[in-house]
Prior knowledge:
Number of helices: 10
Radius of gyration: 23 Å
Shape: globular
Amino acid sequence: MSDREHGAAPLRENTENPRFVSLLTKETLALILAGGRGSRLGRLTLWRAKPATPFGGKFRIVDFPLSNCMNSGIRRIGVLTQYKAHSLIRHVQKGWNFLRGEFNEFVELLPAQQRITTSWYQGTADAVYQNLDIIRGHHPEYVLILAGDHVYKMDYGPMIARHVESGADMTVGCIEVSREKAKAYGVMTTDPDGRVVKFAEKPEEPDPVPGETEVSLASMGIYIFNTQFLYEQLIQDADDSFSSHDFGKDIIPKVIERQKVMAYPFRDPQTGDQGYWRDVGTIDAFWAANLELIGITPELNLYDQEWPIWTYQEQLPPAKFIFDDEDRRGMAVDSMVSGGCIISGGVVRHSLLFSNVYVHSRAYVKDSVILPDVEVGDRAVVKRAVVDRGCRIPEGMVIGEDPEADAERFDVSPGGVVLVTPEMLGMQLHHVR
């Protein structure tokens, strides 16, 4: 059945507003799975869930799926939390409380609370199952399930419309990746019509895309369900004592055998090219994705006024650069510097500084991602590093030049990126992460 037959306007270019919003999104409830620890990020997620991790100078990772929902016209959203969720909950409460309940618009926090069982969330499917009574109370026609820990911009409207038009019971958002990278994801095999005929979670030998040898179709962790069908599958899965209660491992492999599951390739609607999507689940990936933003024309355009990324941010003064002596010049080159930063006679090159970073005289920061509220002391050197929130780099300390010395004090990634946290510097924590 087509989009128009469901009472929604067709997907087409609107001359007054080139970004058309499908009315099917009004009938959709989005659930963002934001309870994961993100263990591959090591001690960067020691005190926060992965979706709460800062990204891009002023945002948190969870802001991207939330903003995608807003910009797609989806205004009924549940955020499912579990692991060390305090900073995530505070962020959502402060930054995402602008919707109007009178119009049935909301961002609800759904922490693990043993509503149906006596256990915490056991898997992605179980997390949704334990909130079935809440979902039923909203009476959605479709349920859109999103991972809360990926960075991308995507209009969910065309995907929902494709789901309805195809007559699918479930649709999976997917992206093409190399076969080597595909080993870390759920991999789909499709027939010529895009129907999923096989789904393998983190396979050793991923199936290639038809006609290719080194490219596979990976799940983005984005699922659209017809609501009644979702209820049935979750209840059946909850009754299966052998299930791990996960969408990728359990539910999808079962339903493709007897139900219609479609793949939806994520592409730029204007160019048809592969869309930008990053799983920033390792320190190397997190570091690289942040520094990509510094480029002249990065794939992820944060300056796109037609697709803004919303967030909560403090009211801070502009960044300031002071002193102009030959050996004491406050400057940043080929970098992004956020509000509240003071570069006081230090030099910053090819780096991304979050809010309230203070770089003291003759300090040198290069190829680094500096999270909020960091202080870099006089003559300190920081290269090829991720420095966590609240760190105070002592005067004269050198980071990123001697791998052996770095490994004794800090964590060093396989790609040679140094992770520095307050605990590694012997600091006590006195603020929300």
